[in-house]
Amino acid sequence: MTTPEAPSAAPAERSEPALDAGERTMLNGWLEYHRETLAWKCSGLTDEQLRSAAVPSSSLTLLGLLRHMAEVERWWFTTVFGGEPDVPVYATEEDADRDFHVEPEDTYAQALDTWRGELAAARAQAAPHELDELSKGTSRNGRHFSLRWIYTHMIEEYARHNGHADLIREAIDGSTGD
Predict the structure, then answer these.
(1) Cβ distance 54 to 64 under 8 Å?
(2) What is the dihedral of CA 95, 84, 153, 94, to 10 degrees?
(3) What angle do CA 78, 81, 83 make, to 5 degrees?
(4) What is the mean pLDDT of each run of 10 residues along the chain (178 residues)?
(5) Hey, how many other C-beta atoms are within 10 angstroms of the C-beta on 93?
(6) Regarding the domain delimited by 23-173, which CATH topology (the fold level of the hierarchy) does it fall under?
(7) pTM of the model
(8) Which helix (H) or strand (E) holds 32?
(9) Would you give the DSSP letter of residue 146?
């Protein structure tokens, strides 16, 4: 079942990162910009369009990207930096990539709510800490990461997937833009 139009997830204009801010403000600005870009790429489409693998050689969908980024936000900010138990949002033992594997019953509204919840948790986790502080938790190989590294990695992660989102969105309805 599709909705007539998915609600807009992003403001008409994204907040441009400051050109002359301090490091923390700059990192926050770029991360928020890329978060808003993904939301913008998903806005205004039906659930069916968001579940559509619009590039013939790939099964990647906009809904899958949004779900994946909810998973990534939780992993890096809550599990690794915060040291909380690894409780995946979508992944299961049977399907580690369940975030990307969308089904007809998976909706934009559900994914958007989950993603927004993970964004709120990530912001709350990072806010009281300095960029040089090391994570309480570790990656799967046992390494600790500075909050600075996590911010930088998250910007890179969103930027890469926003490139995918650009191509998928253009294939769906011809919309382009950075």
Answers:
(1) no
(2) 0
(3) 70
(4) 38 76 96 96 96 90 98 97 96 95 96 98 98 95 96 98 95 87
(5) 6
(6) Four Helix Bundle (Hemerythrin (Met), subunit A) (1.20.120)
(7) 0.90
(8) helix 23-42
(9) B
